[in-house]
UniProtKB/TrEMBL annotation:
Belongs to the MoeA family. It comes from the Bacteria. InterPro entries: MoaB/Mog-like_dom_sf, MoaB/Mog_dom, MoCF_biosynth_CS, MoeA-like, MoeA_C_domain_IV, MoeA_C_domain_IV_sf, MoeA_linker/N, MoeA_linker/N_sf. This is Molybdopterin molybdenumtransferase. Its cofactor is Mg(2+). It catalyses: adenylyl-molybdopterin + molybdate = Mo-molybdopterin + AMP + H(+). PANTHER family: GEPHYRIN, MOLYBDOPTERIN BIOSYNTHESIS PROTEIN. It holds the Pfam family MoeA_C. Transmembrane segments: none annotated. Catalyzes the insertion of molybdate into adenylated molybdopterin with the concomitant release of AMP. It comes from Dyadobacter sediminis.
Amino acid sequence: MVTVNEAKQRIFSETFLNSTATRPTSEAAGFVLAADVVAPLSMPSFRQSSMDGYAILHSDIVQKDVFLKIAAESRAGQSELQPLISGNAIRIFTGAPVPDGATAVIMQEHTSLLSGQVIIHEFPVPPGKNVREIGKQISQGAVALTKGTYLTPGSIGFLLGMNVQVVEVYSKPKTGLLVTGDELLKPGEPLVHGKVYESNSAMLIAALQQEGISDIEIKYAKDDFQSTVDALEALSQTNDLVLTTGGVSVGDYDFVEKALQEIGAETIFYKVRQKPGKPLLFAKRQEKLFFALPGNPASSLVCYYEYVLPAIRKMTGRTDLFLRKLKMPVKHAYSFDGERDEFLKAFVEEDHVVPLDGQESFALRSFAIANAIIYLPVTQHVVAEGDLVEVHLLPF
Ligand SMILES: Nc1nc2c(c(=O)[nH]1)N[C@H]1C(S)=C(S)[C@@H](COP(=O)(O)OP(=O)(O)OC[C@H]3O[C@@H](n4cnc5c(N)ncnc54)[C@H](O)[C@@H]3O)O[C@H]1N2
Ligand code: MOO
């Protein structure tokens, strides 16, 4: 049995970056850049008006209410433009190219019109006013985003604004999921005494999808050694990461540990001093990682968030590996016996955290409404109202 911290350290020292792949930028949100992106063009690539109004020469505006002749128009998207000469103004719109010779744009609200002329009510006008200069945002050849950047919707918009159509990113692990248990019913099957509906696979898939993993291969094994071995071997052939649920405890029909040994996976640790999730097993065969999650649904999900998710994040190039950590006062007293650290399903309110009712490892009712996990090390087994506790925010 290892401690929570030892388990995390062992996982990280055995987990490496995944391979990289080229991806269309439009489908790269949630991935991490595996190489710098250099700006192929300047942004903006031409002098651009930031207002609807009049392009002028700022030095023409020597006092309030100067009259200028409206010589032409510049609309967004216009590529042919005559230059501006002193004494003239060019009607211009937001995003349109500023003509050569113009040094400022006056908002139309600060002007009025009289017999084909525009009167500029603003004075003085600094050069560059309402003009976005070439490269103001980024210059051609500069590093636009560095390797290691987590791509957000904002990043996608920024990159496609420079016509960067593909990016090099760390691939998400191909993930296999083995569901074990003779007692499991498929959704929709009639309820039979002694059986339970299989829900861990959909729960884990939903959690994996939040990390952008959609390439998931599922297999089901009966509680027998050979079918567990065969399913594990098959999944490990085609996947980088294999998760199993159930069958990892010490009962006569728990075969996952032995089956992992049989296929030649090396156990890195088995059993963690924690509640729930004690029987968690982590194993490795070459670069492939195996997490055997306990069958109890709440144990399975806690182990996913605390161990599997950080490993996935490390494989995919992220640097923020763990659930976001906070220290918060607890709303009411809580205590526990025993010698295991505890992870409690919890709900973060504005300025405190509430441990929810129903902390047993079979019970998901609390998890169903939780937005956080409280981590209580065994040294903190009595918590009074208002004491600070470590909170791990669930990803939403
Ligand atoms: N003698 C001991 N017994 C147990 C120990 C121990 O140390 N000594 N540890 C307990 C702990 S802690 C846990 S956690 C469980 C883990 O057991 P398994 O991983 O072998 O899980 P199963 O026995 O297969 O299932 C447990 C429970 O969860 C239900 N289950 C399983 N799979 C699913 C699924 N896909 N969807 C929904 N529910 C599922 C299953 O029906 C059981 O009720 O072991 C304790 N025992
Ligand atoms: O550790 Mo188990 O997950 O308590 O029920």
